[in-house]
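Record minuted for everyone:
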Amino acid sequence: MTSLDLRPVPVSVRPARRLPQIVSGLALYGASMAMLTRSGLGLDPWDVLHEGIAKRTVLSFGTVVAIASVAVLLAWIPLRQRPGLGTVLNVIMISITVDLVRAVLPPQHELAWQLTLMIGGIVLNGLATAVYVGARLGPGPRDGLMTGLSARTGRSVRLVRTGIELVVLAAGWLLGGTVGAGTVLYALAIGPLTQAFLPLVTFRRPSAPGRSGV
């Protein structure tokens, strides 16, 4: 199977197809984050940090996500990373959507509902990641930090990502973020899920003039 090309493509290429895709993908991503926070069974590493900060401040979860995203973008400067439209939309859409969904979705205390939200949230997160990444409109703040550090240090993406997530997980746990079964399941499942969904939703640039993209 040929590997997918996920490099950014100019927004002028098939915008009517790709803009709705990235907006819907980011909205679904925010919804999946809200589901995991309401399950009470553990979050992904970055959301452990976000929740920990939210617990220590008067800020909403979504506001913390937005502030953290901007802080990560500032770290792009010495790494010489350049944001794209997808980067900006990532900051805006996810922070708004996660707060909206959390406002209508109460915390769950019955195990059956907690498991439903945890598993559903992880699967939806994998789909949402594939949808917004597959639009090829630029990386999210945390994705760019990972690829930028990898390029500057010469370390593998896998090693850099693991290091970043261990640091933010530890910091979030110390601040009171929720670490649990969902954290472990997310770490094990998110890669395979995203990889499974990507071929179904990734935009493929036309190979020759006059041919439409997939």
Remarks:
- The mean pLDDT is 91.
- The radius of gyration is 17 Å.
- Residues 15-39 form the longest helix (25 residues).
- The chain has one domain: 17-201.
